Input
Amino acid sequence: MSRIIKNLGSLRLGRSALENHVIDELLAGRLDRRAFLRHGSRVGMSMAAMAVALKTVGFDPIGEAKAQTGKPGGTIRIALTAPAGKIDPVTVSDQYGLLVLQQVGDFLVLDGPDLTLKPMLATEWKPNDDGSVWTFKLRKGVKFHNGKTMTADDVVASIERLADPANGSNALSAFKGILSKGGTKKVDDETVAFHLDAPNGNFPYYLSSDNYNAIILPADYSGDFEAHMVGTGPFKLEKYTPKVGATFVKNEDYWGGPPLLDKVELSFYDAQQPQVLALLGGQVDVIQQVSVQGSQSLFNNPAVNIIRLPSDAHRQIHMKCQKGPFADKRVRQAMALTFDREKLIQGLFRGWAALGNDSPFAPIFPSTDKSVPQRRQDIAKAKQLMADAGTSGFDVTFTTMSIQELPALASIIKNFGAEIGININLKIEDSGAYYGSAVPGKSDWLDSEFGMTDYGHRGIPNVFLTAPLKSDGTWNAANFQNKEYDKLVTDYVAALDLQSQQEVAGKIQRLLLDETPIIFPFFYDYLTAASPKVKNMQPTAMGQIFLQHATVG
Amino acid sequence: MGSAFGRFLLRRLGLSLFTLWLVSVVVFLGAQVLPGNPGRAVLGPLADARAVAALNKELGADRPPVQIYLSWVGGMLQGDMGESYSYRAPVAPFIGAALVHSLKLVGMIFLIVVPLGVGGGVIAALNAGKPIDRIISVASLSLTVIPEFVSAIALILIFAVILRWLPLSATWPDGAGPLTQIRYLILPALPLVIVLFGYIARMARAGTVEALSSDYTRTAILKGLPWRTVLTRHVLRNALVPTITVIAAQTGYALGGLVVVETLFRYQGIGNLVLTAAKAKDFAMLQAGILTIGAFFIVATLIADCITVLLNPRLRAEMGG
Output
């Protein structure tokens, strides 16, 4: 023990209070290896320092880079759905556009598949004492594809461009209340400081690969990205054809070392089925994402590897809390109690999903309080709650979109409702019609009293906690208004260390379980399909595919 | 005859332009009913309202709909198809590329199906009641009811996945020569060949049977003309008039209605372009795409009508010829 204290004593020297707190948590046994890495990386501890700390308490140090198994050279062919519209880092809004951006561009911070932050264009980052100012040190000697060296000016311009409401920036909703225009300041050529709107313990995630739009561009970027796609990334644009695809060649000058592949070929498709057929027919090597419904022929096929990544992607089933049949929370609880979640996961996802407990805190988030009891199907209790609320049943319309398993899930929910006398009429429409103009009064999504919406994976639960659930949230389809909840979320967002995050998370989880404005039945895995000859490819649940170390054949 | 035919053509052309204008009005009105707005379609449902407003302003999509329509009409009159909201680039190159693609596919389809369908129908008619007639009639009827998406997947599985004889994607590599392009187009053409074969074969058979039993054929035979001459000059010439009308009508459909085939074979035709544009409320792209399909439909029908007039002595006579 004394040796441990001594080792850690030297490690602690010169570390911030926050970093020392993470080390304390590790020592006290409150953090396992993964959680320690995740939280150490968030407050800006270096990998080397974390490796020392882990060794001290008996964990394996951080693994070395994967051994190279495949043959270098060659072209990897990836199938993906066509991105919606122009490829412009400022406006890209889907994971397909993201996959294009990510080949040619880098983020300040990398949020890997294990939700641990790793240095990318920033080598270190540190908060001030209350987490309201974060300072990032930039990597030296990084070159853009046009030969210019990246400096703090490029970083400031890239992030300011996203924070400016005049730019049609898709990062604006993520930055809302966090980082405003003018908040990003150059300290020196290799240092940038972010002055936040409010303290935020998870800010590095907002500048990480979690934020589709946050690739670093040259300061003088003028909106013509498709022509050259100048970034700092591992691959350089060879040819881009809208609606058809793109090819990239390796960047010999990449700061992380040149990739092993010679070329990357992205082919755009308009549906999933042809992608599946193309993989079976050997015309592509990888499908960015497959859904369980559309890809049955790939499962149990020895010629196809399915890469499963746990994620927090989910469906939210909202019930209007202010008026209508669900205004009484006992009715909302009753509806949630009719869900047989295990069966849904088995039936719709082959078991490749995690149970949801009617809050955004998915099992993969380290801050999730696992001691909150799991809600399970209980029809008797649901009937009792209906009786207590003074209703024997009612008619209601359930509105959702005709994508993936949503129509199937909607029919199952109709059956669940029938068990307790809730007669559900289904209204299943095109996603364009469902979202409408995405503002109250002009959107079936926000106006329906009972409906289901799809939400993609994110590295931290913050957006899920605020936009769909806070009283002033812009995606608050449930019209959930709860002052206590709002306060708890503000506390959660500001919390800098994991223990306080977990404490607040537990309170939020219990409050949402009681109020049940939204049913979160499951969090489904992100599935990427690949030919077995593809090696060392690293997809993430965000939709990125990191190919620096990948090989084919 | 010349001036009468000329007047007929002129009248039809004028009518066509009026039809196209009407189509543009319908598309304009239809686009107003589509939910959402272009900025929202680009940025997604979760984007900040300020960003959507900024993008709509940049695109000019925040102007009153009538103004958008009028400025689009003004552009069209000067030969400018406008700019795509989604791709923030001129519409014309997109339409041009997609049209060339669609025309190549349509050409491939008719290159295969017209000889097959007409030949099959005529052979069936000449052998009416015999086993060969029954085989062709049953085959054509049962093939017609197979939807494209079913036959397309079956064809892909057999020829591209299992046998790997033909490429699965119809998008050929850059710089491919005509022969390579044809190889890439065979598989995508087949689903529609299957559907249209029955259609054309039955029309051709019915027309031929009718012509065979007509007075003029009997007269021609009794006149002692050789059978070959009777067949080509009297029977087929009359028998194929309705078939040509059917083929022309199918051209428009094959040009714009092959969304399923285009999607399954990853082929950037005009059908998909229009569908994507409608989903994204991409006004100029939607207008240009639908008008292009409409124009081709009108031209195809016009050509069919001209051929009918020229082939049919009775109609020719009515026009003063």
